[in-house]
Amino acid sequence: MLFSSDRRDNSPDHRRLYAAFEIAYTVVDFTAAGLFIVGSILFFSESLMIPGTWCFLIGSFCFALKPTLRLIREVRLARLDDLQQLADRARGN
Fold it and tell me: What sign has the CA pseudo-torsion 73, 25, 9, 13?
C-alpha cells in the first residue's frame, strides 16, 4: 500500500531510501522558498521584474517537484517490500 508511514522502517534499505528522499524534498523546499523570496525582492524594482518572474516560475516548478518526489519515494519503497517478500519466500520464510 502506498503512503504507509510504517513502511519506512522495514529494513536498513528502506531507512536509507526514505532518508535520501527526505533530504531531496527538503532541498527542493528550501530552493523554492529561496526563489520566491528573491523573486519578491526583485519585484520591488520595475527593471528587475522579468528576473523576478523567472524566479517565481522556477520556484513553482520546485513546488510541483515535491509531490513527484513523494510518489517516486513511495513506489520505490513498495518495490523494496516486494523484493523483501520474494527473498523471504526464496528462503522459505
Answer: positive
